[in-house]
Write a structure and sequence with these properties.
Layout lengths: L1 H22 L7 H17 L9 E4 L14 E4 L6 E8 L8 E8 L30
Antiparallel strand pairs: 1-2, 3-4
Length: about 140
Amino acid sequence: EFFTDLETEEDNEMQAFINQCITDPTKRHEMSLITRSYHNKKAAIDDDEMVFSDDIIVLEPISGEIWPNSSTTITVMFKPHEARNYCRMAYCDITGRETRLPLKIIGDGLGPKAIFSCDSIDIGNVFIGSRHSNEVLL
């Protein structure tokens, strides 16, 4: 799918370039730049392992194999930065499937839920300019 889109983009750019060369033949030497550019993009796609990477949701292990009739433990750590809904998509590469299997991960980041059982705390006398600290256990 990535290659198909990239090849279509390359074909379109090549056609536009050929049209430019008809009006200005001095640009022909630039054709190798277009070809090299797309060659590099295709190589980058080939080298990309396409592993899931996110700062909110962390999967461990990030890759591995699960054999038929077996199981494994995959840890999903949810570390939200703010109180809102999060939705991420991870893709599992399955041997024998043409396309990767999508895995939708949803999490709700919640605000603080701590509530004190008292309305006020008496900290005694505190003098102006002095330091004072109290420890409160929740």
